[in-house]
Amino acid sequence: IFENSNDASIEVAQEMANLIKRKQLSNKRCVLGLATGSSPIRVYEELVRMHQEEGLSFENVVTFNLDEYLPMDKENTQSYHYFMHEHLFNHVNIHPENIHIPDGKTPSTTVVEYCLSYERKIKDHGGLDFQLLGIGRTGHIGFNEPGSHYNSGTRVITLDHITRVDAAPAFLGIDNVPRKAITMGIATVRSAKRIVLLGWGQNKADIIKKTVEGEISSHVPATYLQNHKNCTFVLDTGAGSELT
Ligand code: F6R
Q1: Residue 37 Cα: closest atom of ligand 1
Q2: Contact predicate 45/91, CB 8 Å
Q3: Could you tell me the distance, in angstroms and rounded to a whole number, from the CA of residue 199 to the centre of ligand 1?
Q4: Which of 1, 61, 132, 203 is most buried, by the most CB atoms less than 10 A from its CB?
C-alpha cells in the first residue's frame, strides 16, 4: 500500500522496465499482458518517459491486451485499441506486429475461432511474462465478470450492468455502452509468470477487501488471484483502507 497512486505507478513501471531490460540482455522477447482503464495510465506515462528520457527500448516487447468491447471499431475513441495507442504505443519503439489487442469487429460467425487463436498466439510467444491488471467494482479482472470460470480462456462475455454503469460517462450514456466484450480468461491471466493488480481510490476499497480477504469464488473472479504464486496488489491508501 502506497501513500499515493503516483509513487505506486512509478514503482510498477520500474519493475516492468527492469524486466524488459533483463530480457534484452539475454536476447529474449518480453511478453507483457496489458490493461486499459484509468488505473494503468500513470504507469504507461512513466514507461513513455523512460523511453524518451532514458532510452528504454521496446524493441523486444510483445504485448497482449486483456480485452476489447464488442462490437467496437479500432478508430473509435472509446476503443481499447485507441486507448493503448494514445497512452503507450504511439510514443515508444514497439514493432506494430508485436501489438495484440482483441479485434472488436470480429464477426460472430468466426469469434470462437478468433478467441482460440488469440490464446494460441500467447502460448506461441512462450506465455505472458508479466500481466498488468486493474479491477472493476464487480470484481472483474479483464472483463471476467462474476460467474467466470477458473478455467476460462479468451472468449466473448456479456458485461455486467455495474460495469456498463461505470463506463456510461465515457460513452455519454449507458445506452451507448456495448453489451459484450472479448476478454482473456481467468486461466489466461493466471498463466502469467508475474501478475500486478493496480487499485486506486476509496471506491475500490470494498472490492479490494472482498478480493483479498474473501473466500475464493466465481462471485468475485479476482479472488482467483489469491492462490497465484507471484501476484502483488499495488494499492493506494484509499483502495487499501478496508483491509484488516
Ligand atoms: C481493462 C480491464 C478492466 C479494468 C477495470 C478497472 O482492460 O481489463 O478490468 O482494469 O474495469 O477499470 P479502471 O482502471 O478504469 O477503474
Answers
A1: 15
A2: no
A3: 10
A4: 132
Single out the residue of 138, 52, 68 nearest to residue 106, CA to CA: 68
Q: Is the ipTM of this complex over 0.90?
A: yes
Q: Are strands 30-34 and 61-65 parallel, antiparallel or unpaired?
A: parallel
pLDDT tens, residue order, the chain (244 aa): 999 999 999 999 999 999 999 999 999 999 999 999 999 999 999 999 999 999 999 999 999 999 999 999 999 999 999 999 999 999 999 999 999 999 999 999 999 999 999 999 999 999 999 999 999 999 999 999 999 999 999 999 999 999 999 999 999 999 999 999 999 999 999 999 999 999 999 999 999 999 999 999 999 999 999 999 999 999 999 999 999 9
DSSP letter at 155 equals E
The CATH topology of domain 5-235 is Rossmann fold (3.40.50)
Domain range list for the chain: 5-235
